[in-house]
Write a structure and sequence with these properties.
Blueprint: E1 2-5, H1 7-23, H2 25-44, E2 56-60, E3 66-73, E4 76-84
Parallel strand pairs: 1-4
Antiparallel strand pairs: 2-3, 3-4
Helix pairs in contact: 1-2
């Protein structure tokens, strides 16, 4: 499957990584590693998580208060948001 990132999701990933990097570089790397593992799970099992709004699904990033919101479109997986789970739910839906 091909991964396609929404520009806002890319920005959210950069913000989260920068936040953890400002605390500790190892923490930032641990976040990126957990994010990669989450993407791998999504690619292997794209329909494993329950659909939310607008055919989007959500998979938690282990060990961090974030989740990856994505949508399966044929042979593509669209990454819609890297959602801070403590944030207002469904904030990301307005631009989709």
């Amino acid at each position: 499957m091909f991964l396609e990132f929404d520009p806002n999701a890319e920005l959210e990933l950069e913000v989260a990584t920068s936040y953890y990097d400002s605390i500790n570089r190892k923490l930032s790397q641990a976040f990126l590693n957990a994010f990669e593992k989450t993407l791998n799970r999504i690619v292997q099992f794209p329909n494993a998580w329950t659909p939310m709004i607008a055919d989007a699904r959500h998979c938690r990033i282990d060990g961090f208060p974030y989740g990856v919101v994505y949508r399966v479109c044929g042979d593509r997986i669209q990454i819609l948001a890297i959602m801070l789970l403590q944030r207002k739910p469904n904030y990301w839906i307005d631009g989709k």
